[in-house]
């Protein structure tokens, strides 16, 4: 109904744009008008074919060249300012474009011996693959007994939102963000923030009181993003989910309450998604501990593998109760997604596990899920950055170091199995740092019965 009213009462104007326009041209009205004038003068010069007409065109052409160069320089200066303020998204987009690495869409996909070429076939095949990644073994198992080492001093059983905070959140929306399946854009929500903030607040509070999330807010349009390797294989793509902006406004407000509630009991070993804590601080912490060994084990597709029943049991243990427990349960279950390729959508399918990709509370829910992982480590020092985990141990004897790591890695392996996660063994490495020669042979460092085959001399730690 909201979209229908907008279509009926908001004037629309179609504006043609040049797909190949550079960003410093696309956003600069003076340059665009100069280019249009150049095109008109060029057409006139060809038509009348006089020296005066050609001279006028050439002056305009030179002006366009000059304006374009100045606009590009100003654009790059803005990018540098963005980086200094912590916003790196635009400069990475610019770098990819300059290096010729812009996306060219999804080519034909090969599934088994079948080649899929139509957008419909590719979208359904890619969605099937993404859904397969959320399947868990024995996900109907009873949840393990969970006793947190610390619990919040209060419970989070209800949330009541005010009209003012909803309006402020609407006005803070970034208009450049893409919309979800409901096609309600952030720009539209910002424009009508004042009149809709009241009704929207009532709708949000109703959802929170009933502990139910509307089904339309649990849908996602998914775009496959190529990671690396053969572009014709579905497993070389990751999902980029576009969710309802209306839902994300509520998610943001709920996540603020959730993080305030659980922040006091989050392990000090976790740095991911937490304010005032980042990879630099984590690296400094590791150096201070005289890291002698490091096992770096990304959890395999960790966000897609979060066991819903296990996460909910931990939320309850952390003081999330009554209507808010029901709200998070509704939020996690019965979600639906479709892959969109070249404007063609796949069939809707439901993920079997995982926190919603692209959602606001997703990262917070994930670090709550693995919050107790660090307690498995008794003889080594754990450091976590979201799903990136490092264990370190120091001793003058390499045999003692390896023994300590292996004992804790065995405990970590048991924890992962218990909570239905798995380490990406292909990314696991062992590093030994010493001022003396390392005695050979190096004792094996093992995880889940597998020897970490790669010992490295240097390792990039979470972007540092």
UniProtKB/TrEMBL annotation:
Residue ranges occupied by any Reverse transcriptase domain in the UniProt entry: 225-431
Q: State one Pfam family annotation.
A: RVT_1
Q: What protein name does the entry list? A: Hypp8155 protein
Organism whose genome encodes this protein:
Branchiostoma lanceolatum (Common lancelet)
């Amino acid at each position: 109904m909201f979209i229908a009213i907008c279509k009926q009462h908001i004037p629309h104007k179609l504006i043609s744009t040049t797909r190949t326009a550079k960003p410093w041209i696309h956003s600069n009205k003076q340059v665009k008008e100069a280019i249009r004038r150049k095109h008109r003068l060029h057409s006139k010069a060809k038509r009348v074919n006089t020296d005066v007409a050609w001279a006028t065109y050439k002056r305009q052409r030179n002006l366009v060249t000059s304006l374009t160069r100045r606009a590009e320089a100003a654009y790059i200066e803005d990018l540098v300012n963005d980086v200094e303020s912590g916003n790196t998204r635009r400069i990475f987009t610019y770098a990819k474009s300059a290096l010729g690495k812009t996306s060219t869409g999804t080519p034909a996909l090969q599934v088994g011996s079948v080649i899929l070429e139509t957008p419909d076939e590719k979208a359904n095949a890619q969605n099937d693959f993404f859904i397969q990644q959320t399947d868990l073994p024995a996900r109907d198992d009873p949840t393990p007994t969970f006793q947190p080492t610390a619990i919040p001093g209060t419970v989070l059983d209800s949330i009541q939102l005010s009209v003012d905070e909803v309006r402020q959140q609407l006005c803070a929306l970034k208009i450049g963000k893409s919309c979800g399946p409901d096609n309600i854009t952030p720009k539209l929500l910002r424009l009508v923030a004042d009149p809709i903030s009241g009704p929207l607040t009532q709708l949000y509070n109703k959802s929170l009181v009933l502990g139910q999330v509307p089904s339309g807010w649990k849908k996602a349009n998914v775009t496959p993003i190529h990671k690396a390797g053969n572009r014709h294989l579905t497993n070389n793509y990751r999902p980029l989910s576009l969710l309802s902006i209306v839902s994300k406004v509520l998610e943001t407000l709920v996540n603020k309450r959730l993080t305030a509630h659980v922040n006091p009991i989050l392990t000090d070993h976790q740095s991911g998604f937490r304010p005032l804590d980042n990879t630099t601080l984590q690296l400094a912490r590791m150096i201070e501990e005289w890291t002698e060994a490091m096992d770096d084990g990304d959890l395999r597709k960790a966000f897609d593998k979060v066991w819903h029943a296990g996460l909910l049991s931990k939320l309850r243990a952390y003081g999330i109760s009554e209507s808010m427990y029901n709200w998070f349960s509704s939020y996690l279950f019965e979600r639906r997604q479709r892959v969109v390729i070249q404007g063609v959508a796949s069939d809707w399918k439901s993920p079997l596990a995982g926190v919603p990709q692209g959602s606001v509370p997703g990262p917070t829910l994930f670090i709550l899920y693995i919050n107790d992982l660090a307690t498995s480590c008794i003889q080594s020092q754990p450091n976590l950055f979201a799903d990136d985990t490092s264990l370190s141990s120091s001793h003058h004897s390499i045999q003692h170091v390896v023994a300590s790591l292996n004992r804790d890695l065995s405990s970590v392996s048991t924890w992962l199995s218990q909570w239905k996660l798995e380490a990406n063994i292909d990314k696991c490495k062992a590093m030994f740092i010493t001022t003396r020669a390392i005695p050979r042979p190096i004792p094996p460092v093992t995880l889940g019965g597998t020897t970490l085959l790669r010992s490295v001399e240097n390792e990039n730690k979470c972007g540092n």
